[in-house]
Task: structure prediction
Amino acid sequence: MTSMNNSRLTILLATLGACWLPAAQGQSLVDLYDLAKTYDAAFLSAKVQAEANAYKAEQARAGLLPSAALTAGVSQSYLGITPVVGPSSERGFGTQQVGLNGSYPLYRPANQAAFDQGQKLLEQSEAQIIAAHQDLMVRISQAYFDVLAAKDSLAFVQAQKKAVAEQLAAAKRNFEVGTSTITDTREAEARYDLVIAQEVAADNDLRVKRLALDQAVGKRNLDPKPVGLPLKLPALEPVNVESWVQRSEENHPSLKLLQTALDVAVLESDKSRAGEKPTLDLVGSVGVIRNDQGTTTAAVGSAVNTASIGVNFNYPLYTGNSVQNRLKETLALEEKARIDLAGAKNSIAQSVRTAYFGVLSGQGQVKALEAAEASSQSSLEANQLGYRVGVRINIDVLNAQSQLFQTKRDLAKARYDVLVGGLKLRQASGLLLPEDLAGVNSLLMK
Result:
């Protein structure tokens, strides 16, 4: 029995270990994006809206298709006759009827315009889904690298705390043997206290960033994989900003949405004009009317079969100017849609240029900080050596340490900003695809 219990415990522990294995290994950017697609409210809302638009488009198709209706009825009537001379008489009789009525629109321009509007709704749905995918990729990437930046910041502060603690211990030893003044010790103590405060702030910032990532994905205790070092940032292609602007005009989902909105507005004007045009429908019906007990005019039962086919023509002569005023309204809305489209093109072009130069500036900043990191490391080593031989004071070493760790933190943050900025640039141009996210994901540690 004990052996069996031990075996069950081993299996349970192994199962729990397997469940926690992905968390222990960390999650990649693509892993969290896939999770967010099943949780994020904005993304799921866009998907449901696309489904609703598809159904609405099918509703518009019905205006071009034939329609049929089955009718049936049963009634019971009573007839009483009281003559001037002679006895009165009375009787009852029932009527049963069933019929099939159908119509087919031969010429209804308003229905055709409504159908075309439905097809435009499908195009809008496609653009909305693309925009939702791109927005989700950027939001998850931003939250992901915010966590990595916060982790790096905390790690650098902790490393600086350790270095300052060692410098404080050295200052105390030198003071005890008389090779330095109490000022060195007080400066090291002040710097140590400052680093402790920075560590508390960095730890709190990491908690907040983790909560934001957890909320975006719908999971808790996530552990994003760090980037692999040395990190080679992807090149910015094409190198011409106007090429990015041109691509945005051709591919941006928001522009496609506004263009289809303009097309829908034009079709709405066509629908308004159709109010002044005639309509023509093919109509037909078949039916049976049974009067088993007679009618008001005949005392014997009868059955009547009916069938008809024809066309209905309708031409509006006067509508109280409602059609004309409706047309003026739709033409004004059509012009508004054109203005909105033109304004969006300018706004998106500006966003593309801003994102492009942001990435370009970020790449330059990374190169400068890489050089500054090497210089800061050399400066620290020189100051440490000078402190040991007595040509540098304690504050020189402390400042060099602070500069090195701040440079390391800024360099890590700048690298993350370039990666996220590249995704934002592709989003601003309407070109962001899951393959681009996979490219960034390949830079993470395996």
About this structure: The chain has a mean pLDDT of 88. The first helix runs from residue 2 to 25. Residues 83 and 422 are 100 Å apart (CA to CA). The radius of gyration is 39 Å.
